[in-house]
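The record is kept unedited without comment:

——
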Amino acid sequence: MATWNSRGLRGSFLEELINLTNEKYRSQKLALVQKIPTPIKPINIDKATRHITLAYFDQKSTVDYIGVVQGIPICFDAKECAIDRFALYNNVHEHQMKFMEEFEEQEGIAFLLIYFKNRDCYMYLPFKDLKQFWDRMQAGGQKNFKFEELNPAYEISVYSGTFLHYLEQIQMDMNERE
């Protein structure tokens, strides 16, 4: 069973950048996107500080963010990767794939936002591309995909060093669906 400190807060830099961006989108009335907290079950609580010192994840999470952009439902997960290979088997789980697939069936848009640390590069990965990589893995192929396999048009610009403007990539994704 996963514990609070086992793998938590990996990607906190990316999530902070996304949270700032989502606040900007909200204030400009462009989108309303919220971070979905992962439910935890506290085991030990420090009585003096009232801080949780040990907890277990209560249930499987779906995605990190859910919201709406100009009437279009979106959901996505934020991931960080230190190298040019993104390990699907470590970063994406079957229940998440199922959720995103069902979300897309309801005419929503699902995707990943991935930060490749070694390149200082942010990428938008449409669900259809993620699904191709996933299906390849499930068929016994590579358990990862390489940075070079991603569409370079989906690179996300960082504005003022604090905002990750991913709405342009959502628009590109929508245009490709039409």
Summary: Residues 1-11 have pLDDT under 50 and may be disordered. The chain has five helices and twelve strands. The two ends are 43 Å apart (CA to CA).
